[in-house]
Amino acid sequence: MTHFFDSHLHLTLKNQFSKKGNSTSPWKAITKEDLKDGLPELLKIFALGLIDKMFSSQSSPDLLIQSNYKLVVMPLFAPDIDLVKSLSSKKVFMKLLDKYRNTRFGTVLSIDRYQDLLKEKNAFSIVENDLALLPENDPYQPGRKVVFLTAKSQWNEATANTLYVVCSVEGIHSLRSNLGEKNGAVILEDIRRNLKKLQNRNIKVLMANLTHIDGMNSAFCNQAYAMDGMRVSNFDEKDLRPIHSGLTDFGNKLVTLLEEQEICTDIKHMSPQARFQLYKYRAAHSITSPLVSSHSGLCGIRFQSDSESFSDYIYSSRKEGDCYRVKVGKPAKYKFNNFPSPGFNATTINLFDEDIKAIYDSDGLLGISLDERVLGYTKAWRLNQDSFSDNVGSITLRGMGTKKILTDTDFLSNEENKALGLFNSTKGKLLYKCADAKELTDLITGNSTDIAPHQFHHFLNQILHCVKLGKDWDGVAGVEKMLTKILCIGSDFDGLIEAIDWCTSCEKIDFLKKKFVKEFEKTIITNGLFLPQNWPIDRIANRIFYENGRDFVLSRLK
């Protein structure tokens, strides 16, 4: 039987926003029918045509077991206070929740629960409540169960109707009992105590993010900007922009604490300066444990090199308060027949080649997100003959007129902008290599009902780039290591993502795998790369979609 693994998906997150005392069960998927009362208005508020696939369940346990998932990493997560504030800042959204408070919609998305989360100082209590929402046995279909793995002896791949789970921590604030505490040493001891509580509950924490999407974890490190979707939808996300710098002394101590607990550091959500300082700290202290990036996309470029750097793709940069707003072009490197070359999302929340090398050298794990924007897919519009949507820029090509390029918007703190040497706000010298906006808008105009393949190409793009890096670093052995050890799926399902159209939930993962088997080998050849000998494409697919992750988790259990 085909099995699946995921290094980052949520089993209970959407149930955290349900009405207290009348909680929806994680075992029963939230559907469009549950949301039908307020869904049309919700679509308008978020300005996204496919928001129903964001709020419906993508990875509840019933869907996962039906879809042959065998082992997953479940994030323990307390919603960031500034995230909840940002959602609450849009009055029309809160009015919608209030309007439907006595309907099924209001049970699933409860205004009272949002208001409770705004006041909650004990983030760890939210995690404990999250775990309490998920009974071991499926109350709706007897015989199905969730098993929280703590030892290899528990593992039995042949056991039917069983989902094995280990945990991660998404944002170290999720292990804090008092978000008002400012003393780093006190916070660290609180984290240690709560990790012990999880151990006593037979919860294995495999990996942890030092930060998440706001400044709640600034005692440890700065976060990368992650909320451009909310900015585009006109939510007030200013408090979610990074204003600090790097990895702090207490951040170093936190890394040491995680090492003592045999918990891998998950570099997702760390700012670039924090990541680079982490690698230096690990090297200086001879830390060789695996690094993880559980649910990431790739920038497709090095941050710094003689031939290509992040600054070479900066379209514009301007200071806004404690940050710089930076527009970045989308590097296009690989070709797909009859479609525009997909561009990478090169904003700093994604991984530069240096980050991938750190994971590779540590024998770590890299989970590829299935969020279309993370992967680099961008919607763009031609407003009239000569103007386009805000994510399109114009550059002049010597002797060839102008080119319209796709861009993404990033925010970097003033301090990191300075530390990383990004003062130069002139347009980068490699912007001409970026994804062509006119090609995309023409594609959408002429083929608006069938652009899903282009999103799939963005998924393949991530794996292609890793193959290219493995080849550059270690030849055939590097390609094999990337495909059969390092890469896995880290979808971020149920994390309020806009999943690629060909895999909108875990129910479609088998379709995505089959599409990968059908398309990847010829795409490799088209781009001058190769598969390792004695590794047919179906075996490689098994490694990426299941076995790489399974083997990594089991290697961390005793």
TrEMBL record:
Cross-referenced Gene3D superfamilies:
Metal-dependent hydrolases
The superkingdom listed in its UniProt entry is Bacteria
Could you identify this protein by its name? Membrane dipeptidase (Peptidase family M19)
